[in-house]
Amino acid sequence: MKDRSVEFPNRYRMVKVEGTNDIFDLVPAPGEISEEGTFINKATLLKDATAGLFGLGADAVPDDVFGVLSRFQNGLGNEYVWEKTKKTVQTEIGTTGLMYLCASNKGSSTVQYADACEVSADGSVALKNPISVSVSTLVSYGADFLRGKYFLNPTHPGDTDWVKGIVYIHPTDGEIFGSSYSSLCIRGGSLYTPYVTIAVFGYVNSPDPNSYPVDDGYTYTALGQLGAKVRIATGSYTGTGTYGASNPNSITFDFEPVFLVIYYGSQKTVFIRGCGTALTILDGPFSASTLRGWVNAVTFSGNELAWYNGDHADYQLNTSGAVYNYIAIG
Amino acid sequence: MRIIEIAPLSNGAHRNQSYTGLHGYIPDGWAVVPANLDTPNFPFGEVEAEEINGKMIVTKWTPGEIPKTEPVVEEPSQQDIIEAQVTYTAMMTDTLLGV
Question: Rounded to a whole number, what is the distance in angstroms from the first to the last CA of chain A?
């Protein structure tokens, strides 16, 4: 935005309204105008399109937008998030050559076809509004009407030259003909195999956990609340050489840790919230020779983990000057 | 961010940790060690800290002497003892395999 800049910002000329003695128009007399400035109006403060980005209507004012933004200033962690996706059916070229579609003496005696496919609830491809037809009818009366359609023989006989699952029959390629054993075949064309693709359209959020899904053709997968997420932290400390109940080690986090591994060289020590001792092992297969019997008394208290060993600083993972690394999950 | 307990332990060392999080939270009695502060013999030394913008910050570090410590003598494990005895017996009876 630009400020207005004129030679005389507060100067006006009084012009008497014709036919009156006491009514005047105040006409600005700014002198030289060096900068017109940005007008304060709907177009510069809050366009309809901008209001729409915040889920607001054309009557919204800037203060309404600030109200929406305040959710993120004071309670970003309270927002619920959903992944917005769309599943669509695509096709890829599949089998070519001579293939059996159906036969009176094999597979199902009734087959199905449809103009389109859709994604079923379990994420697989399914015929949309399928139409059933008997194999004998197909074989007797011809099956050119299957061109440009999706076809399914519900029972696959197990032969490799039979179509399996849903296939798309090309509108023009190949020849559909009846063969022996009252069978229907396709030759010289390509059968296309439908499959599901998932396109991610990003993420949406709302303070209301029931805001989604909505019936707009998209799939919404709940991802939970922003603030209630698993936390992972890494860090290190340098050993002080002390040990014992009066010199415990401690590490403080900004969340409650539930699982921690401290590693130094070949040794790893595992701490699990709720367990009063820690397990130290060396590299290699778990055995009597890689398991260390260093007993550390462990305390989880809020965001802090503390432990000690009564025998030696090395056992307490506190060798003087040694740098111990850790990773914590909570 | 690296933080250190201001009060020393009995051997002159200071409890310490470095952490990717903590975002401003410093436990009571602890102070932040600035990244550009040289800290020889860490964590053995004297810490001077003062509150700056609401946070305790280490303003001076005087290195201390690192005490000598006795290394731990690992007792042989049960597995080690058994393997040693089996090997010895095999050598005495000339039944050691692979030799």
Answer: 47
d(CA A244, CA A200): 55
Separation CA A192–CA A102 (nearest Å) = 17
Q: Give the model confidence (pLDDT) of A2-48 as tens digits.
A: 999 999 999 999 999 999 999 999 999 999 999 999 999 999 999 99
Q: Which two tokens stand for residue A285?
A: 């297969």
Q: Is the pTM of this model over 0.80?
A: no
- Counted across chains A and B, CB pairs separated by less than 8 A come out at 74
pLDDT given for residue A145 in this prediction:
83
Q: Do A242 and B69 touch (CB under 8 A)?
A: no
In chain A, what residues touch B76 (CB-CB under 8 Å)?
A: none
Which of A229, A234, A236, A238 would best serve as a mutation to test chain B binding (most B beta carbons within 10 A)? A238
The answer to whether the beta carbons of residues B44 and B65 sit under 8 Å apart is yes
A280 contacts in chain B (CB < 8 Å): none
Instruction: State residue A69 phi and psi, 5-degree precision.
Output: -65, -25
Q: Per residue of chain B (99 residues), what is the pLDDT tens digit? A: 889 999 999 999 999 998 765 555 688 899 999 988 999 999 999 999 999 888 899 999 999 998 887 666 666 666 777 777 888 888 888 887 764
Contact at 8 Å (CB) between A300 and A257?
yes
Show the tokens assigned to A160: 């490799």
ipTM tops 0.90 = no
Instruction: Using the predicted structure, report yes or no on whether residue A200 has a pLDDT greater than 80.
Output: yes
B79/A289 Cβ within 8 A: yes
8 Å CB contact of A240 and B9: yes
CA atoms within 13 A on the CB side of B68: 1
User: Are the beta carbons of B10 and A242 separated by less than 8 Å?
Assistant: yes
Chain-centre distance of CA A318, in angstroms? 42
Question: What is the pLDDT, as a whole number, of residue B59?
Answer: 93
| The predicted structure's pLDDT at residue B72 | 65
Bond into A213 cis (ω within 30): yes
B30 to chain A: nearest residue by CA? A252
CA A262 – CA A274 distance, rounded (Å) = 17
Query: Can you give the pLDDT at residue A196?
Result: 82
CA A105 from centroid of its chain's CA atoms: 48
- Cα A229 from Cα A224, distance rounded (Å): 8
Q: Is B35 helix (H, G, I), strand (E, B) or coil?
A: coil
